[in-house]
Amino acid sequence: MVAFAKGQGTGNDFVLLVDPAGEVSPTPEQVAALCDRRFGIGADGLIVATRTAAMPEHERALGGGAEWFMDYRNADGSIAEMCGNGIRVFARLLEEEGLADVRELVVGTRAGIRHVRAVDGGFSADLGAVRLGPGEPLVRAGGLAVARPGQHVDVGNPHVVVALADDDELAALDLHAAPEVEPPVVGGVNVELVVPQGIAGGEGSIRMRVHERGSGETLSCGTGAVAAAFATRHWAGGAPDRWRVEVPGGVVHVDVEQRTDGEHAWLTGPAEIVFRGQTAIL
Ligand SMILES: N[C@@H](CCC[C@H](N)C(=O)O)C(=O)O
């Protein structure tokens, strides 16, 4: 039996393992079994907390500086570079286990080093330089009569953001099947469907639903909220720098920070561990 924790951030939920020495190495089939909502624990993804020193290839690529590595898998067992909600839940787990000082935490990920800070009610994470991609993919989603143009956004992992006309159109979407993106993105893509709600007092507001690569429709996606904020800000002409993103599971905030390597996104939101147990799946 292996000890696990279950955590969530705005309803994006994760099975978490603490595996300091990197001994567990779950197979894709085991990840899918853990995340299965009927036969397993149930989650949108698996997060394994491992000491970076136990993962020499990642330690070399990151160049040191991060004691802990967040190894992220989607619910279907596929590997993802980054998880914006997951990194806050990861920080909460390390805090509760007494394994790190989370007032200022440095985390190794497949997308690079990420900085996380404890704030009132949750955590803020610098998700790095966000890049808008070229081209205008066409997206077909269940419930939309015609294909809509999208915006590629790289948040360390790939996203396509599509603007919808209004909240009724957002509510009527059927995201049981993955939206089709044309031309297709090799390796798959996360798709955010957004309705801009306006700008007031220097803060933009968006409502969003998401279909995550490897997990299906989820109640929230942190990197997706960042992608949605950056695409909407781009469509609005490059401002404002603070965004409120409402997802089915709650609200997160995105702040844009100008840095020498580009515009960084700070993602702020809640994170909690909801239960712990032992699993026979591993
Ligand atoms: N839910 C996450 C993103 C998880 C990875 C994503 N499904 C992918 O495959 O890139 C988030 O909060 O960012």
From TrEMBL:
It catalyses: (2S,6S)-2,6-diaminopimelate = meso-2,6-diaminopimelate. It is found in: Cytoplasm. Its main location: cytoplasm. The record marks H159, E212 as: Could be important to modulate the pK values of the two catalytic cysteine residues. It comes from the Bacteria. The active site is at C83, C83 (proton donor), C221 (proton acceptor). Its EC number is 5.1.1.7. Catalyzes the stereoinversion of LL-2,6-diaminopimelate (L,L-DAP) to meso-diaminopimelate (meso-DAP), a precursor of L-lysine and an essential component of the bacterial peptidoglycan. Homodimer. Belongs to the diaminopimelate epimerase family. NCBIfam families: DapF (TIGR00652). This is Diaminopimelate epimerase. It comes from Agrococcus versicolor.
